[in-house]
Amino acid sequence: MRPILAGIETEYGLHIETRGPEDQIEDAAALVRDYPGERFVGWDYRFESPRSDLRGFRVDRLAVDPRDARYDAGRTYPSDAELRADRVLPNGARIYSDHGHPEYASPECWSLEELALQDQAGEIAVARAGRAYAERTGLSVRLYKNNCDYHGASYGTHESYLVPRALGFERLFSAVTPILIARQVLCGAGKVGSDHDRACAFQLSQRADFLADAANVETLYRRPVFNTRDEPHADPRDWIRLHVVCGDANMISSATKRKAGLVKLALWLEDAGESPKWALADPVRAFRGVSRDDSFRFEIGLQGRSWTTAREVLESYFSAAEKVLGVRPGVPQDGPAGEAGSLIAECRELLDDLENCPERFRRRVDWAAKKAMLEQFLVAEGADWRDPRLRAFDLEYHNLSHSDGLYFALHEMGEVEPRPDAHEIEKRLESAFEPTRAYARGVAVRKFADRLRSVSWSALSLEDEHGRVWDLDLPPECAYSEALAAAPDVQSYSELLRGEP
Amino acid sequence: MTITADDRLRRPVTPNPQRKMGDDDAGPGRPNVPKPGGDNELLKRMKRVDPDQAKRYRQRSGQ
After folding, report:
1. Which of B42, B57, B61 has its CB closest to that of A373?
2. CA-based, 20 to 30 A from A208: which of A24, A151, A433, A470?
């Protein structure tokens, strides 16, 4: 089992008093520009290719939500670079404005533990930018780590997994799609009501209503269960970056780990050519069906008029990992096998808790924590699921403010699992904590920000004290040495990175 | 390992219930939780929430 490099990018909801969605593009960029911490300003867009499709073609344009075009009528905007307001942080993360949402793209991580911590560090970074904006403008700012506005708009929390090019679209689609559908049960953020399709009172996923196709390259409109964007941010001859767009933003840290861990499990199995082969009848219908199933049977239609359940799908991956990969849940093992073993043990425990101990289940799963919170209100007020206040509570569950946010209220009261130590999260903004290429990128920002000419996920360009330009690749599979942080100047840093004497 | 439809009993998928908000059985079942006391801290925090916050909350579509 090889370690899989992964990252999470979260677009945050932004609500500023007296401002609306027509102002959001400018407001989000201004808020990101106000980020007060150490950073390098700029980004190298040359390696971006959002219109390239894994299936071997390139679309002319990406679909956009027609409602957004109305907000832009009669407006002119500055350049893309100005609107995006990219900042690269000392941990190798990128914070920028994406389609009017402050976005934190975590540094690449190998372990799930680190990924979850870096994802939570993003909450701090975005909240700091929000506070700085509020202080400068005098306006009240609310930031939400969620994925919908209850009026038909959605914004994403995307996951990236670096996988060998040899796997290709067909194998990835077949290996990953069933787990994307089934994992909602264990990682959904929960949502009151629906944005599209028939009405419902509560569902597991914030994104299910916005999925229109089984697979496509779109992200802004007609989104897919399986996204086919082919933008590897690495040598395209060797690598694919699997880009998952159907997941929710999680407030509970273990749910973030579980969300990424289940995809990694499918990838490890497919690496070995042994992922379970489920013949899904209709991935979109299955995704929505699981999200909205208040009977908790979570049935998934299969070809041939048969069906299975989310639990059976998950268990098929777990048992295959035990059989094929030698993973031993509950038994300490090193590396990816240990990570997979802990994940499987936890997921099995949760699936049992869902049936037998909902009080324990809701401490670790956002949708269940949120639903239990809403039910307390319903009982206390004698209200029902049609009460319009429920959506306000749903939204405020995701508020980043520790004093106002309802997730943070549940946390204070011990109703959800404890968060990782606040200091551990905060120090993630200062450096990458694993020897990934994010570490090298972060060192360059920390030590040589005034010498950096450009930064991207896969490359750096620096100019040394003698005017020599160093164009440096950041291969994703390498382990980067701590010696980089001790390099006294750009030349020695660059030589170390290139492996030169 | 291959699991296909042929390996399973042929069972029809339960049709999705066509419910609408306001139907008698709409939504999750009646919560099985005791009525919280008046000093419940969570309820106090919830009552501080502007009930129209979600109504006013409008966003552009992101990715």
Report:
1. B42
2. A24
**Secondary structure class of A240 (helix, strand, coil):** strand
Are A233 and A192 found together in one domain? yes
Residues A357, A491, single domain; the answer is: no
pLDDT tens-digit map of A134-169: 999 999 999 999 999 999 999 999 999 999 999 999
Identify whether A385 is part of a domain. Answer: no
Q: Are residues A417 and A451 in the same domain?
A: no
Q: What percent of chain A has pLDDT over 70?
A: 100
Q: B18: Cβ–Cβ under 8 A, 6 or more apart, which residues?
A: A198
Task: Tell me, yes or no, if A396 comes closer than 8 A to chain B by beta carbon.
Answer: yes
Contact A289 B10 (CB under 8 A): no
Query: For residue A376, is it within any domain?
Result: no
Contact B5 A302 (CB under 8 A): yes
Which residue segment(s) compose the domain that A459 sits in? Answer: 435-498
User: Mean pLDDT across the stretch A64-77?
Assistant: 87
Section A246-270 average pLDDT? 98
Q: Does the CB of A71 have a partner CB in chain B at under 8 Å?
A: yes
Q: Give the nearest chain A residue to B22 (CA atoms).
A: A386
Q: Is residue A387 part of a domain?
A: no
**Element at A95 (helix H, strand E):** strand A94-98
Q: Which of A384, A402, A426 is the last residue of a domain?
A: A426
Distances (CA, A) of A157 to A20, A210, A325, A357, A465: 22, 13, 29, 29, 40
Chain A CB within 8 Å of residue B48 CB: yes
Based on the fold, state whether residues A249 and A221 are members of the same structural domain: yes
Distance CA A187, CA A366 (A): 7
User: Is A177:A214 a contact under the CB 8 Å cutoff?
Assistant: yes
Is there a single domain that holds both residue A354 and residue A452? no
Across the interface, whether the CB atoms of B61 and A64 are under 8 A apart is answered yes
ipTM: 0.92
- A398-416 pLDDT, tens digit per residue, is 999 999 999 999 999 999 9
Residue A226 φ then ψ, to 5°: -115, 115
User: In chain A, whose CA is at the least distance from the CA of B37?
Assistant: A380
- Residues A34, A98, A119, A248: which is the catalytic one? A98
Residues A319 and A457 in one domain: no
**Where do we find the tokens 């290719």?**
A49
Whether A1 is covered by a domain: the verdict is no
How close B23 gets to chain A, by Cα (Å)? Answer: 10
User: CA torsion angle for A408, A424, A367, A300 (degrees, to 10)?
Assistant: 170
Number of folded domains that form chain A: 2
Judgement on whether residues A405 and A490 belong to the same structural domain of the protein:
no
Whether A197 is catalytic is no
Q: Same domain for A352 and A478?
A: no
Q: Do A15 and B57 touch (CB under 8 A)?
A: yes
